[in-house]
Amino acid sequence: MSSMKIRNQDNWVKNKKLILKHNQKIKTYESTIAFYNFLKSNRVLSKKTMHVVDVGTGLGSHLGYFSEKNSQVKFTGIDYSSRLIKEAKKINKKDNINFFKVNILKKNTNKFIANCDGITCIQTFCCFKNAKDPIKFMSNLKPKWIAINSLFYNGPLDIQIHIKDYEDLPSGEGSDGDFNIFSLKEISKVFKKYGYRLDKATQFYPKVKLPKIKNGRRGSYTMRTELNKNTTFSGPVHLPWHFILAKKIRD
Ligand SMILES: C[S@@+](CC[C@H](N)C(=O)[O-])C[C@H]1O[C@@H](n2cnc3c(N)ncnc32)[C@H](O)[C@@H]1O
Questions:
Q1: Residue of the nearest CA to atom 27 in ligand 1?
Q2: What pTM, to 2 d.p., does this model score?
Q3: CATH architecture entry for 11-18+26-208+239-248
């Protein structure tokens, strides 16, 4: 058994430059816009939507963009990191956005987020070791739909990838993260168990080529492959980004 110490994934919040980069105030990411368009084209984010909860919201960067476009919708970001929630509140001072500290690996006690209309979970599902725990938490909030932007594979395999980034922390110990990839077929079974049907799974490839990161550092870049002219990688790993949508089977 490995004795490797694994830390919470919020150490980088001490770095003000990274906060500036990740809060998308400088520029909205192409993937944020594409995921928003996915929600719109599948008619889940609509004039009838009242309340959307963003699970593992980080700095709530996506909510800034979503709320500008949908001022009638209430958005709530949840994350287990106190540091991130504190920064998210500072960055997103809007009437229709709020944040709570919630650990989704524990039973929910926050009444405000229960019975929301929809759930978004963006680039966070890949942090979990199994698909059951986050799906159980999300379905317990009884939303009509759950939309996830994460790493999925159309085959009978789950792949676990743990990242240690040795340049992230001044101590040089390495920060921790995950790029776990889940089998679409298997998560569809988990959704079914909790009363949801996996309705859509769309691969996401950036339209614009992303340049390779200098000195092999972490960060998304694209390469032309047989899969797509803009296949996404980070370091040595191919990232099979998908947008998926699950809908409640019955009320
Ligand atoms: C890769 S970040 C993505 C953040 C944000 N969704 C984005 O796209 O910018 C993953 C987020 O999940 C949060 N997270 C990880 N495990 C969690 C848990 N058990 N409960 C709540 N949040 C968690 C982390 O704190 C982090 O903010």
A1: 58
A2: 0.92
A3: 3-Layer(aba) Sandwich (3.40)
